[in-house]
Amino acid sequence: MTTTPPLPRQLPRGLTQDELKTRVGQAALRYVLPGDIVGVGTGSTVNKFIDALAGMKEQIKGAVSSSVASTERLQALGIAVFDANAVPSLSVCIDGADEIDGQGHMLKGGGAALTREKIVAALAERFVCIADESKLVRTLGQFPLPVEVIPMAARHIARRFAAMGGQASLRLRNGQALVTDNGQHILDVKGLSITDPLAFESQVNQWPGVVTVGVFAHQKASVCLLGTAQGVKTLVYPGPDRPEPATRRCSASNH
């Protein structure tokens, strides 16, 4: 196993990535209602949402967080954080993505919180993905696929990905294997083209030693707020519990 740097991303001209993140973070507030307990993901884009959410902290009950980092940021801003076991369901989860396709399937885990992010997503009636337009892809897999693994299984799992044509790298931090909030390690896998996200997620999650794979197909996005040079574009992804628009499977609007 080796380690590799992240892939560069193209952004709209004239706007910084930070500005796009701020736009979508603020736009996500329209999915938060008074009295809500909000599911909150992890990452730099989500941090912008947390900062914006602080302006509503007197109107909401609080949040369920997917990571220690998000919990610390929420609490520092005076937002109450609930344990996931104390909350039977959530009306909405707001989280980012490393990639999202035209059906709302996502590749996530760049912030190493993928397992807890899946748990929070599973509690929510609606998953709102916030991202810049460089994250919208035809097929998942250009961004290295994160997989949370039990340390003793890392090399075995890397070999299984190699048999599929992938190259697995152990994620490092300060020269040592990164340890997740769950006490596990992360493999980042390059060279995959994930054409059937549902089947792929189910397959890899069955491998012994995999905690979870960073494909979110069973907990896909309901909505994606996409930061663009023209504004925030809203992509709606119908699912079994959501009526399909009369026009097309993925509808878009600008705000």
Descriptive overview:
There is one protein chain. This protein has 255 residues and is α/β, with parallel strands linked by helices. It has two domains: 17-137 and 219-254, 3-Layer(aba) Sandwich (Rossmann fold), CATH 3.40.50; 145-213, Alpha-Beta Plaits (2-Layer Sandwich), CATH 3.30.70. It has six helices and 17 strands. The protein has an eight-stranded mixed beta sheet, sandwiched between helices. GO terms for molecular function: ribose-5-phosphate isomerase activity.
Overall 3D form: globular
Helix content range: 10-25%
Low confidence ranges: 2-9, 241-255
Rg from C-alpha positions?
18 Å
Main beta sheet: strand number and arrangement? Answer: 8 strands, mixed
Mean pLDDT: 91
- As laid out across the biggest beta sheet, the strand order is 3-2-1-4-7-15-16-17
Alpha-beta content class: alpha/beta
End-to-end CA span: 44 Å
Helix tally?
Answer: 6
Active site: 117
EC number: 5.3.1.6
Keywords: Isomerase
Subunit structure: Homodimer.
Indicate the topology.
Layout: H1 17-27, E1 37-40, H2 44-53, E2 62-65, H3 68-76, E3 81-82, E4 93-95, E5 99-100, E6 106-107, H4 114-123, E7 127-132, E8 145-149, H5 154-163, E9 167-170, E10 172-173, E11 176-177, E12 185-190, H6 197-205, E13 210-213, E14 215-216, E15 223-228, E16 231-236, E17 251-254
Parallel strand pairs: 1-2, 1-4, 2-3, 4-7, 7-15
Antiparallel strand pairs: 5-6, 6-14, 8-12, 8-13, 9-12, 10-11, 15-16, 16-17
Helix pairs in contact: 1-2
